[in-house]
Write a structure and sequence with these properties.
The chain has 230 residues and is an all-alpha fold. 88% of the residues lie in helices and 0% in strands. The chain is elongated.
Length: 230
Amino acid sequence: MSLYGTNNEERTDLTKTESRFIRQRSRKLLGSLLLPLRARLWLAVAMIFVSTTLRVAGPALIAFAIDWALPRAIEDDFYPLWMVILLYLGAAAFSALMVYYFMILTAKIAQSMLFALRNRMFIHTQKLSVEFHERYTAGRVIARQTSDLESISELLSGGLGELVVGIFFMVFTAGALLILDPISFLVLMAAVIPLAIVTRWFQINTNRGFRAQRVASSTLIQNFVETMTG
């Protein structure tokens, strides 16, 4: 069955091949939206990279203070301890500043992408034939331009930024743990394997539910608009 245009858009029982095709098409669309914003995107990645590095450096500074600065302080040499304290506070402040600007920048990127997507949808809708609009009701068009875009907006505004931050923090924490305590790192990696399996199972089994929810929401908006406008 064709998955182009509006064909079979309300199906929930997609095969693996069809699901893979939709994911590839979605990634292609996402890439085309990000291409004009790649400079700001790389700047956001650099900000969160610096912020995560400073967050991971905090425990290392504490360990350095315990192992080296405190023994020197006992001998009335407080200079190393004060240096560690200042470095720790500076790292925390600069990390918070990077997160602040990262959130602002990612919000601007998300809104720019949504604006471009809305423009594409509007222009494409205007180019469609009268025959299409007679067959594809106004309620369904409004549903696509409201509920679907709202879901994308939630993903770009919150979920995507949190995902990037979480991935960076996980990688940096694992790297620091590997350097400081390789045994604990191996234990952590052993725990990641079942977690990855459960996460994959959850993803596969919720895709159909999320798609059914999308179809139900679209149908509700469609029926409401058609009932109110006739």
